Amino acid sequence: MNTIDQFSFLDKKAIIRVDFNVPLNNGEVTDNSRIVAASPTIKKIISDGGSCILISHLGRPKGIDQNLSMGNILKEVEDVLGSEIILSKDVVGPDAKSKSKNLKPGEILLLENLRFHNEETEGDIAFAEELSKLADCYINDAFGTAHRAHASTTVIAQFFEHKFFGKLLEKEVLSIDKVMKSGEKPVLAILGGAKISTKIPIVENIMDVVDDIIIGGGMSFTFVKALGGSIGNSIHEDEMMNTALDILQAAKNKNVKIHLPVDVVCSTEFSNDGKQNIFDIDKIPDKFEGMDAGPRSLEIFKEVILNSKTILWNGPVGVFEFSNYSNGTKSVGDAVVTSTKNGAFSLVGGGDSVAAVKKFDLQNSVSYVSTGGGAMLESLEGKKLPGISALEN
After folding, report:
1. Which active-site residues does the annotation give?
2. What is the reported pTM?
3. What is the mean pLDDT of residues 100-115?
């Protein structure tokens, strides 16, 4: 792995693929964590005496859309980096070329939104080559897009002799490797969310690595129904019931313990205000649906989590967006934090899990929170990400 710490960027212009795809509300950045995550790489280049050309997408524009212009995030980037940023009006046009050419050591240039050009998502080789001409070396620090074979994430790398993993990308790869390759046992995967169908490749790939799997959230009801339980009106996938049974058998064959909820907090309506009842998960009455893990389930989950030395958490165990059904996910999070304090390594990834740890302010109390939802899931499925392969070839 070629990392930026192995190289001096003195008098070098580094083009850095960052992930500044941050949420905006009326042109204001509402969460700057992706900008913060990229700052160590940028500051390393500057401290070496180099200059930075930052490239990123923002949203999914159809052509040029000023609501998704990088000008909207310029002030936030300047505030996070504590430095004045030069903004280019284009990506590979005359303004970008002129400002790149005149960039001095210590300066930072932010190019306009890459996705104003269809060539970016199409992985156009000519577009990538034009981008590459702006700099001396290439750094990918955008794990969130490393699973996309886009011009700026993959294709561009072939035009550079000097190409590197940024500090964020390096951390992401090492964290996933720590779970999948070198994790101290017992290794635990906590899998939640609504559907088994989205998690099958992960379950199949991690089965050879983990000792325990906690299955919570909506996906648990498909397992329970497949085992003959009554799940009332709870979310489930009838077409996945045989798959659920296959997963349970495979786990048994590989001596992996699967922990399903035993009780569940239910309601007659999918809202925060419905009347709550707790039932055994396999004895839910017809008009009720499961909304959160019950108290006995949480005790079982807590014991498993506290006994684990390596923890992967992907998916909530209840409808945590509703305050009355957030207790299960928060309790799981608290147990992961306690286990981390006791020396376990904990990796949290996937959009809903990341949203949950932020909601409960646990992000600084686990070992690592992944910045890339789709990229992390594909890594856990055992896929080689094109953005990473491009740096290694």
Report:
1. 34, 195, 351, 374
2. 0.89
3. 98
